[in-house]
């Protein structure tokens, strides 16, 4: 496996809340790595550390062979980190098209002309071609999620970090998201995909990592991880609480 992203022994605490104690994993080239774990396990915190929003108290992050642990959000974005937010936050008073243009201009330093060209392609590809001129604030949940991914793609990322892009959607809408993730993968982008919907993890990922108690509890092929005694204990423990 050609490693794109390497996370080694990452830790972070908020006061006495030791959210991540020791987290390690590798993301391969053109791989979709699913991340599961109970509510409050620290999945979003991990994503915020990867993108530079939060600084870990220990550990190292290497991206394409370069140590990025001390790099800023902007630097990482320019190097090829893209992400979506758990709660989509588009510019509501801007159109779908304008929102995607912003991704290209600020995320990849494109001139307006190039950003527009890219936004045309991406909105078409993601299934928002007929809603380009809609205000983002008028979109339903599935289209907001689509827009989140489109905005992230506009910065031409090498890796994409998805925070529950399928959360809150119906089963047929989840299929649409699965198709989009497959398309992203076909374009050669590697993906870290946090999700509670286990069906999507089973069908849409190459490997799955379970995060619990501040650690990477188990990582492997989706079916193996889902059936592992570690995951069983983590979720059974959560049910008994
Ligand atoms: N900026 C912050 N300051 C202090 N505590 C924080 C901060 N961000 C997250 N936490 C705490 O870290 C813990 C993990 O939160 P996180 O949002 O990463 O969980 P999660 O695994 O994403 O959960 P969910 O599945 O519900 O999205 C929680 O106890 C949360 O309160
Ligand atoms: Mg979260």
Overview of the molecule:
The chain has 241 residues and is α/β, with parallel strands linked by helices. The chain has helices at 43-51, 73-79, 96-108, 112-125, 141-153, 171-186, 198-204, 222-226, 229-240; strands at residues 3-14, 17-28, 32-36, 58-63, 66-67, 81-83, 159-163, 190-194, 207-212, 215-220. The protein has one domain (3-32, 43-193, 205-215): P-loop containing nucleotide triphosphate hydrolases (Rossmann fold, 3-Layer(aba) Sandwich), CATH 3.40.50.300. It is 40% helix and 26% strand. The strands form 2 sheets. It has a 6-stranded mixed β-sheet with strand order 6-7-8-3-9-10, with helices on both faces. A 4-stranded antiparallel β-sheet has the order 2-1-4-5, covered by helices on one side. Helix 3 crosses helix 4 and helix 3 (96-108) packs parallel to helix 5. The model has no long low-confidence stretch (mean pLDDT 94). Magnesium ion (MG) binds at residues 43-44, 86, 163.
């Amino acid at each position: 496996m050609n490693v794109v992203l390497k996370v080694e022994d990452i830790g972070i605490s908020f006061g006495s809340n030791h959210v991540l104690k020791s987290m390690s994993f590798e993301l391969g080239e053109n791989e979709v790595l699913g991340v599961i774990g109970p509510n409050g396990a620290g999945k979003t915190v991990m994503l915020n550390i990867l993108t530079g929003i939060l600084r870990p108290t220990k550990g190292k992050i290497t991206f394409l062979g370069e140590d990025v642990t001390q790099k800023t959000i902007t630097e990482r974005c320019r190097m090829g980190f893209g992400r979506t937010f758990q709660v989509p936050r588009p510019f509501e008073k801007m159109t779908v098209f304008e929102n995607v243009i912003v991704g290209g201009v600020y995320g990849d330093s494109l001139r307006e002309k190039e950003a527009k060209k890219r936004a045309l392609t991406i909105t078409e590809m993601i299934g928002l071609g007929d809603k380009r001129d809609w205000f983002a604030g008028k979109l339903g949940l599935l289209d907001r999620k689509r827009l989140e991914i489109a905005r992230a793609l506009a910065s031409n990322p090498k890796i994409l970090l998805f925070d529950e892009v399928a959360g809150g959607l119906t089963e047929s809408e989840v299929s649409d998201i699965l198709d989009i993730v497959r398309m992203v993968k076909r374009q050669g982008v590697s993906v870290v995909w946090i999700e509670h919907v286990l069906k999507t993890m089973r069908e849409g990922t190459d490997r799955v990592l379970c995060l619990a108690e501040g650690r990477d509890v188990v990582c492997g092929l989706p079916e193996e991880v889902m059936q592992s005694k570690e995951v069983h204990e983590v979720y059974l423990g959560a049910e008994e609480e």
